[in-house]
UniProtKB/TrEMBL annotation:
Signal peptide: none annotated. This is Formimidoylglutamase. Keywords: Hydrolase, Metal-binding. Pfam families: Arginase. Belongs to the arginase family. InterPro entries: Ureohydrolase, Ureohydrolase_dom_sf. The keyword Signal does not apply.
Amino acid sequence: MSSSERVAYGSGLPVDPLWPRAGNWPVPSGHSDFALIGVPTWRTSISATNAGQTPDAVRAMIPRYSQFAHSGGRPLDFADHGNVPDPDADEAATIAMIGAVDTELLVALGGDNAATVPTALGRWGDRLATAGLVTVDAHYDLRDGVSNGSPVRRLIEAGLDGRRVVQVGISDFANSAEYAARARDLGITVVLRDELLGRPMADVMAEALEVAGSAGGPIHVDLDVDVCDRSVAPACPASVPGGIAAHELRAAARVAGKHRRVESIDLVEVDATADTPDARTVRLVALCVLEAAAGLALRS
């Protein structure tokens, strides 16, 4: 979907003038507080995926919910920049397109985890030397080559300081000793899945964002939905039993949205065509979009 080819989502849903629905945000006409963009990467995925179809599936799901949050906050101006055309084919053009978005907070809908690289680099621009990264992900994403398993390594090779990278949710049986050593050697702060047990996600994210923002630069937050338990994220090829709960991912999105240095968030690794009949994974992504907006509304 390009910005000139708009679909009105939710047209078959009940209408209540006292219960306005979220979504169907306008084409940008200047600066926005909150912007959505689709980055439908999929060609370099290690696992077979149709993740390129997910951005529009999420857009179609958002109107099932309202924008009202009990936390309150300031009103927001929303914009939807459509989808980047074939982001796998021309990463430089994708970076430029994302860099041109005039917004306080950009949420990128993947696509697989390859979407993280152009989204982060596009938002950071010439501030890479002070930038930070937080990933909420079961995997290190430090593989060699170019794939959905390499975005963290690629960003560090582009100039990101590994000491301002925090990886939350790294899981057993989903990684290797070699990549664990690579993370350690790069100075990455790692919070294992087991370390999250009994700790509020909001507290963990607050600490992670302090590390990532320690140089005073922009922060990108990568929310890889396969960090979640497979029961709530069955459309993620790599999700496993024992991942984090849906409410924990939603909490991470809200805390990220609220932090003043977070300029971009991505939601990745969902194949909407592999979801359950109730679309529970796509529903979770849609709610994370709204959680990020609710967090942004609370920024001072």
